[in-house]
């Protein structure tokens, strides 16, 4: 099963992240063949690390939570919180390391998977996946990588997504993001 794991940095940990970098990389190397998407989220100006995203193939929720909590940054208290959601990938293309992108995470009340036949704004996306409930039968959100950090382009995609979903309780977060990994 694929799980989307997002861990948010605790405040003021930049120096410790650098110090533990090799330990983090060594841990991630153990999952290299199962990582579908990974990389750090960044401050709006791209200068500071704010969290980490990993989409990884694991056996079940317990394995996803173990992946998150055995990660060296988590064990050292450098992450403040994490989420782990099942995900089904609907679109994935090559993502450049040369420029930052925008990570869009939306959450809504559960909806049947059949409600999503088309990916909104797909030309602007490098990645799109639906977040699922634990049973894998209802969509509870989505994760998208938009190929730009230009606010007007990101806003246009969010508007299209909001119109497609039309759920009053929907929340949307955008974060600057870049593709991660050793190479």
Automatic annotation (TrEMBL):
Segments forming domain YCII-related: 1-82
Cited InterPro entries: Dimeric_a/b-barrel (IPR011008), Sec-metab_biosynth-assoc (IPR051807), YCII (IPR005545)
SUPFAM superfamilies reported for this sequence: Dimeric alpha+beta barrel (SSF54909)
Pfam families in the cross-refs: YCII (PF03795)
Family: Belongs to the YciI family.
PANTHER family cross-referenced by the UniProt entry: PROTEIN YCII
Name of the protein: YCII-related domain-containing protein
């Amino acid at each position: 099963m694929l799980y989307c794991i997002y861990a948010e940095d605790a405040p003021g940990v930049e120096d410790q992240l650098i110090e533990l970098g090799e330990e983090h990389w060594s841990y991630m190397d153990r999952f290299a063949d199962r990582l579908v998407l990974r990389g750090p989220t960044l401050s709006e100006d791209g200068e500071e690390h704010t969290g980490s995203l990993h989409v990884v193939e694991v056996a079940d929720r317990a394995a996803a939570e173990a992946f998150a909590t055995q990660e060296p940054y988590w064990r050292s208290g450098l992450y403040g919180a994490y989420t782990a959601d099942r995900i089904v990938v609907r679109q994935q293309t090559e993502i450049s390391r040369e420029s930052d992108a925008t990570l869009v995470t939306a959450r809504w009340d559960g909806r049947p998977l059949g409600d999503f036949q088309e990916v909104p704004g797909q030309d602007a996306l490098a990645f799109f996946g639906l977040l699922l409930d634990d049973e894998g039968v209802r969509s509870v959100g989505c994760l998208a990588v938009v190929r730009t950090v230009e606010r007007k382009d990101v806003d246009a995609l969010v508007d299209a997504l909001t119109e497609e979903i039309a759920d009053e309780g929907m929340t949307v977060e955008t974060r600057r993001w870049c593709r991660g990994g050793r190479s």
